[in-house]
Amino acid sequence: MMPATPVYIICSPRPQVGKTLLARLLSEFLLLKNGNVAAFDVNLKEPSLVDYLPKITETADVIDTYGKMQLMDRVIVDDGLAKVIDLGFHAFDEFFKMTDEIGLLKEAARRHVAPQILFVADTDRVSARAHEMLRGQIPRMNLITVDNEYVVRGELPRAMEGGRLFRLPALPGFLKTYIDRLNFSFTGYLRQEKDASTELHQWTRRNYLAFRELELSLILQR
To answer: 50, 100, 111, 116: most buried by Cβ count inside 10 Å?
Structure first.
């Protein structure tokens, strides 16, 4: 039993960093573990999260006040249902400007909701500035830097090494093509593939276990 309802906000100011892949993995893990999850897709381009997981995902936007309030009303609620937000790079600045203005973290705490911001790192200046901005706005325990080895391909920028880290191991290109199919399911693969030694089987299990550790850290924070 989680002490507060978790809300996972997966974000980056840059496209093509593996943000939606992480949102898919996390959503499937939560669906497997809890039997249900509510996912929100704030993206412009296809394919995006709603294309991969249409049964549990709805589209949202933060372009205008109505869209922002509609999204917040759905996610900042202590109903025991974990939420995942796949925040498109185009909405990054506007979303975190909003969260700062409304005092999202304080309001979430008041409502017994635990936001976790998973920032998918890159090595460019835009990512560096965005990460610095989040460090100034988000408490250390709520901010997780995601090291996607397929994107970073080496060491994280030094400024991003401090604080909480989540490492997403790289997959070979041919396997990435395989999992990018719209009808692919990570949980379905684990159930159907009898050979637990395959690289994709081990990769998926490793990430699911890492998500479980992330959940346990939430419990220990309280």
So the answer is: 116
Mean pLDDT of 45-67: 91
Proportion of the chain above pLDDT 90, given as a percent? 79
Mean predicted confidence (pLDDT) in 179-202: 95
End-to-end CA distance of the chain: 12
CATH class as words, domain 5-221: alpha beta
pLDDT grade, residue 1 (50/70/90)? low
Confirm whether pTM is higher than 0.90: yes
- How large is the greatest C-alpha to C-alpha distance in the chain, in angstroms? 50
C-alpha to C-alpha distances, 117 to 55, 67, 200, nearest whole angstrom: 24, 20, 26
The total number of residues shown for the chain amounts to 222
Give dist(CA 51, CA 215) in Å, integer: 26
Compute the Cα dihedral for 205, 210, 214, 220 and give only its sign. positive
Domain boundaries, the chain: 5-221
Amino acid at 171: L
pLDDT at 46 (0 to 100): 77
Element (H, E) at 84: strand 83-87
Q: What is the separation of C-alpha 172 from the centre of its chain, rounded to a whole number of angstroms?
A: 22
Q: How far is CA 109 from CA 105, 124, 170, in A?
A: 6, 33, 35
Helices (H), the chain: 19-34, 49-52, 65-75, 92-102, 104-110, 125-137, 149-152, 158-161, 173-179, 186-192, 199-221
Angle ∠(48,50,55) on CA atoms, nearest 5: 155
